[in-house]
Amino acid sequence: MLTLDKIYHAKYILKPVIRETDIIHAPNINPESEIYLKTENLQITGSFKVRGAYYRMSQLTDEEKAKGVIACSAGNHAQGVALAAAKNGIRSIICLPDGAPISKVEATKSYGAEVCLVKGVYDDAYAEALRQRDEYGYTFIHPFDDENVIAGQGTIGLELVEQLPDLDAVIVPIGGGGLISGLAFAVKSLNPKIKVYGVQASGAPSMFNSVHDGHIECLDSVSTIADGIAVKEPGENTFKYCSEYVDEIVTVTDDEISAAILALMEQQKMVTEGAGAVSVAAAMFNKVPVKGKKVVCLLSGGNIDVTILSRVIKRGLLMSGRSYSMNIELIDKPGQLMDVSRIIAQLGGNVTSIHHERANEGSAVNGCYLRIVLETRNYEHITEIRKALQDNGFKIVD
Question: Could you give the count of Cα atoms lying within 13 Å of 15 in the half-sphere of its Cβ?
Fold first, then answer.
């Protein structure tokens, strides 16, 4: 069983291996709250996962160590297991879904693990890992539904209470639930008044649905940019702990996650992956009651694939009103484009893309359309520009 003593033991075992990550004040995330960031994105391997993986491996028998270990992961648990195995001289095989970011696959290999790519998503990799465990006698290191793994993740809760004793609430990402289970157990055991809120991606709400309906449910599919928490089904242990110790679970959209990633980069100079930013998205968009409270958002990982970063930033710009496109119907005569540009420039907008085409069949013979992409400050700025154009007789048709 999970106990506070076990979590303290995990802290002792992990002390020479991991970083006690800093808490950073982030005043602009939600001006109505006092927000802090727990920077597990700066943990070794770039994720909190190494905590649970290393502690689990420290509890193996000599016979289990000799046979080796196997694990499955969307990426971060894989790196944690690989590093822990290498430090303990244990052979490790990691089953990864074939859609895992290349950066995570290569990082896992770099820590010395043997990588087995499996067609499908996390749950398909999980099934293959269990098959190889049964065939070859490896010890399976579960990414979340294991008491020792949960205890390792719970060490974050101990750090939080020590670092911010007057903390009101913690917002925590949820995939399978190992992180929030250990953290919530530790925090609630030390101070039951602290609220613990969980966040899932709206495209992978397995724990959200399960806790809401009172029993474990398996999703047919998952779809989210937060690949680290794209889990179809929570574990038995994690479902139990979430039901008992977590105050509320909410969901955030991919657009909200993208906006949070962008805000962390611009305001805090922090790079997080989608899964690591869901806690900030929940605070930014007031998904949980944090107004006037001292709140920690847990940044669970920073291993974002750089090949999708530009797409995430683009979505984040759109979500936060920093980028905007519009179609304007014009009369095709000299000076129209100049007038549109002048109005936008006077209001501080910056045109980044422009496309001019004559009207299609059914439109006025001398009509044309102007499609413009702008850099803007926020939604209020967009409204100001639209109104100025309309006040000057231009028709916006999008």
Answer: 7
What mean pLDDT value characterizes the chain? 92
Task: Identify the helix (H) or strand (E) that includes residue 252.
Answer: strand 248-252
Instruction: Choose the catalytic residue: 33, 73, 202, 300.
Output: 300
Q: What are phi and psi of 93, to 5 degrees?
A: -120, 130
Q: Is 49 a catalytic residue?
A: yes
Identify the active-site residue in 49, 104, 188, 232: 49
Our answer to whether residue 11 is catalytic in this structure is no
Backbone angles phi, psi at 312, to 5 degrees: -65, -45
CA distance 109 to 249: 34
Burial degree of 118 (CB within 10 A; 0-12, 13-18, 19+): buried
Pairing of strands 248-252, 195-201: parallel
Specify which residues 250 forms β-bridges with. Answer: 199
How confident is the model at residue 362, as a pLDDT?
53
**What are 315-349's pLDDT values in tens digits?**
888 888 899 999 988 887 888 888 999 999 999 99
Look at residue 52 in the predicted model and tell me its pLDDT. 97
Is 90 exceeded by the pLDDT of residue 108? no
68: Cβ–Cβ under 8 A, 6 or more apart, which residues? Answer: 85, 90, 91, 92, 93, 136, 138, 139
What predicted TM-score, i.e. pTM, was given to this entire model?
Answer: 0.86
Interval 351-376 mean pLDDT: 78
